[in-house]
Amino acid sequence: MLLETLLQTAEKLVESGERHTPGAKARQISNDSTARVNSCPSRSRKSLSSFAFAACLVIGLLAALIGCYSGGNPMRIGSNAPDFTVQDSDHKVTLSQFRGQVVVLNFWGTFCPPCIEETPSLVQMQKRLKDKGVVVLAVSIDTDDNAYHKFLKDYKINLITVRDGAQKSSSLYGTFGWPETYVIDRNGVIRRKFIGAVDWSSPEITEYLSKL
To answer: CA of 48: how far to CAs of 3, 5, 18, 41, in Å?
Structure first.
């Protein structure tokens, strides 16, 4: 239904573009879309063709929607965090076993550059706030057990980690993009959600987690 609406919008824009040359506002929209989607057709020096302009807009809208809504059942801030248990080759972890602590639930993968980027700050934050009752639970969605363990060893990951190759736990949260992180308070309520890499060692994040 959404895709059909976007395509109809593109079709109207194509028809409109055949009658009018895109103005300043249209050029601004085109530039924004190109910034979000690298594969978006580039604009000529004089004007952007109506078809390319419509394609840019549709692709940009889709990209924005996917970034904001990455799952079929996203958790809402203020709702109880769904409990889950994951058993991998090392151990079994249940989310509710950390009740009474602030949980930073991080879904990640070894194949994901933004996940790798934020890992050092996650480790640093965990070390700094452990005595304040903040715990990081890093759930890997890797299907390759060897790659997962190699990553933990190579990067000296000193966090509570568990591998959920079936992605059952992340599916509970409507998560299909990585990394995605949920901050869960001491009562098991979701207080905040982060999409993408975060600098967990920043003063703002440290202060926020310390006060929960």
So the answer is: 23, 22, 11, 9
Residues near 151 by Cβ (< 8 Å), separated by ≥ 6? 110, 142, 157
Read off the pLDDT band of 82 (50, 70, 90).
very high
Q: How do residues 198-210 score in pLDDT, each as one tens digit? A: 999 999 999 999 9
Mapped onto helix, strand or coil, the DSSP state of residue 180 is strand
Q: What is the mean pLDDT of residues 188-204?
A: 96
Give the three-state DSSP class for 68.
helix
Predicted local confidence at residue 76, as pLDDT: 83
pTM of the model: 0.67
- Angstrom distance (rounded) from CA 196 to CA 115: 8
Give the total residue count for the chain. 212
From residue 204, how far is each of 119, 175, 192, 194, 200 by CA, in Å? 18, 25, 13, 14, 9
Distance (Å, whole) CA 102 – CA 210: 9
